[in-house]
């Protein structure tokens, strides 16, 4: 493995290590000065040249103190400061070794600490250069002692062994530093991977349509997503006990751990909700815990219903398209026969044929509108401005006196809806309200407001209202109480509202009459729909 340059590592780690090394050097220099100044001639070190030993210790202490200034400024660059500090140790400790009697004083062994520290801090092969410089200094120091102080030539063997120790310690420190760097980089990669996996896990659990609970072998809840909280109608924190919080669910979990199967595939929840249970063991060992999936059966049934309705809509639209051609021919032929003067009974029968062809044609047109829900082009607009325009058009089309249809509520409310769809929905609701109302001033009211954080629009009339036994069938296709109705108006209106993320519901009026409420999708700060339950 090649050595990494210093720039590849976080600088703060290098500067912190260099600061600790300098504190060690300061401690060492202080001890040497104290020993030389306190004990003097009785000190075993410095016996040969006490004055040189004391002076070198003082200079060494001063150099160490001055080295804190560039270290604090982090200038010049790190490698230069490390080289100066190691070089200072080599020079200083070599002179102290000479002043203490040479190789036999063992002061040169202190350089092993400096070389080891330099190798660990630099994390590169430059530590071998430091070992070479220390070896040269030791050889020069002993050679000088042999030439001027009559030192023993045989001690070159000890000096050589000391130089070998320098290189051994330097290489060992370099190897350990390399492994430390690799371990640090591996730990950093693993840490980033764990953070990414944790974030991905959080996003997946947050956006899942199914409820998810992660429990350990004792039933302690380790994780739980928002969908599970909504299905179980309880917000719990991590570490809560499943037996105490959801005893029914824990019973199924305990049974699954024993037999591998739950007694109930569908779990009955509060407020009439149902959830399909599925247990998945963690690491193929149920004793370590499991992941519990709660599949909302209401959502599953709604999706299945939407698929059926979409297929039915395409089928009926195709059939309606094929029916319109012969129906047009029949209607045209009946109109031609009506223009001829004939028997009164025959004229009455032709009129019945013509009326029923027109009714069938209306049914065909309503059926073909079912495909429009897949082409919603929603936009954000002010509801009151759109309603004012609609009321003028509706009054003109139905030939109503001014004041029959009134608008009430807060102005300036914005909604996100397809304008064409909303106009069609309102047209169906207002025609129904007009049919069953009294057609007096204020008989038909469009009331805007807010309810539970959503914008709502109520269409109210002053008729007799819908009987209780018929309210559950209002939005079923082809259900009608009017002889001339097709039974598709309210069904299509509800479908168009759902295609735009809204709801259409019937509410019995407090007084007389009926109330159909459109609950619009919430808007976020950017003006886009935020959906229900966000």
From the structure above, extract its key features.
disordered C terminus, alpha+beta, 534 residues, 4 domains, single chain, Beta-Lactamase, 5-stranded mixed beta sheet, 56% helix, disordered N terminus, 5-stranded antiparallel beta sheet
Entry summary:
With 534 residues, the chain is α+β, with helices and mostly antiparallel strands. It is 56% helix and 12% strand.
How does this structure look, described?
The protein has 15 helices and twelve strands. It has 534 residues and is an alpha+beta fold. The protein folds into four domains: 6-190, no CATH class; 207-299, Beta-Lactamase; 304-372; 376-519, Histidine kinase-like ATPase, C-terminal domain (Heat Shock Protein 90), CATH 3.30.565. Strands 2-1-5-4-3 form a five-stranded antiparallel β-sheet. The protein has a five-stranded mixed β-sheet with strand order 7-9-10-12-11. Strands 6-8 form a two-stranded antiparallel ribbon. Strand 1 and strand 2 (221-224) form a beta hairpin. The radius of gyration is 45 Å and the shape is rod-shaped.
């Amino acid at each position: 493995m090649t050595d990494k340059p210093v720039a590849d590592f976080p600088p703060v780690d290098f500067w912190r290590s260099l600061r600790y090394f300098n504190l060690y050097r300061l401690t060492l220099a202080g001890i040497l000065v104290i020993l030389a100044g306190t004990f003097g001639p009785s000190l075993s070190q410095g016996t040969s040249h006490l004055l040189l030993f004391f002076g070198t210790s003082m200079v060494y202490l001063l150099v160490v103190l001055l080295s804190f200034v560039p270290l604090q400024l982090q200038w010049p660059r790190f490698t230069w400061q490390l080289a100066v500090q190691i070089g200072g140790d080599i020079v200083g400790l070599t002179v102290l070794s000479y002043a203490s009697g040479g190789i036999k004083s063992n002061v040169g062994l202190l350089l092993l600490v400096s070389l080891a520290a330099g190798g660990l801090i630099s994390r590169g092969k430059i530590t071998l250069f430091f070992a070479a410089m220390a070896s040269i200094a030791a050889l020069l120091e002993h050679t000088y002692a042999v030439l001027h102080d009559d030192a023993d030539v045989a001690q070159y063997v000890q000096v050589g062994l000391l130089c070998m120790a320098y290189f051994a310690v330097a290489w060992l420190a370099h190897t350990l530093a390399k492994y430390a760097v690799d371990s640090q980089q591996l730990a950093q990669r693993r840490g980033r991977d764990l953070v990414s996996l944790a974030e991905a896990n959080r996003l997946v659990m947050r956006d899942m349509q199914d409820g998810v609970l992660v429990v350990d072998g004792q039933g302690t809840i380790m994780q739980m997503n928002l969908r599970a909280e909504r299905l179980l109608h309880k917000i719990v924190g991590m570490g809560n006990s499943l037996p105490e919080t959801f005893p029914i669910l824990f019973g199924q979990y305990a049974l699954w751990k024993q037999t591998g199967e739950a007694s109930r595939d569908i779990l009955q929840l509060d407020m009439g909700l149902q959830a399909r249970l599925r247990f998945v063991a963690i690491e193929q060992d149920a004793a370590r815990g499991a992941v519990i999936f709660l599949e909302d059966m209401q959502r599953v049934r709604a999706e299945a219903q939407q698929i059926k309705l979409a297929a039915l809509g395409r089928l009926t639209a195709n059939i309606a398209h094929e029916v319109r051609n012969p129906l047009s021919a029949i209607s045209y032929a009946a109109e031609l026969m009506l223009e001829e003067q004939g028997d009164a009974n025959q004229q009455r029968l032709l009129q019945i044929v013509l009326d029923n062809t027109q009714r069938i044609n209306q049914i065909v047109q309503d059926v073909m509108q079912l495909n429009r829900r897949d082409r919603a082009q929603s936009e954000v607009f002010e509801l009151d401005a759109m309603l004012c325009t609609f009321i003028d058009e509706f009054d003109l089309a139905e030939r109503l006196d001014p004041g029959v249809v009134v608008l009430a509520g807060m102005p300036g409310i914005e909604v996100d809806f397809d304008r064409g769809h909303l106009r069609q929905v309102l047209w169906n609701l207002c025609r129904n309200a007009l049919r069953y109302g009294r057609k007096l001033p204020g008989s038909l009211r469009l009331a805007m407001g807010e309810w539970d954080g959503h914008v709502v629009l109520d269409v109210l009339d002053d008729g007799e209202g819908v009987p209780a036994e018929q309210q559950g069938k209002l939005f079923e296709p082809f259900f009608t109480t009017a002889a001339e109705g097709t039974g598709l108006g309210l069904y299509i209106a509800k479908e168009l509202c759902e295609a735009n993320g809204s709801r259409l519901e019937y509410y019995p009026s407090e007084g007389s009459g009926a109330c159909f409420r459109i609950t619009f999708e919430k808007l976020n700060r950017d003006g886009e729909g935020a959906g229900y339950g966000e």
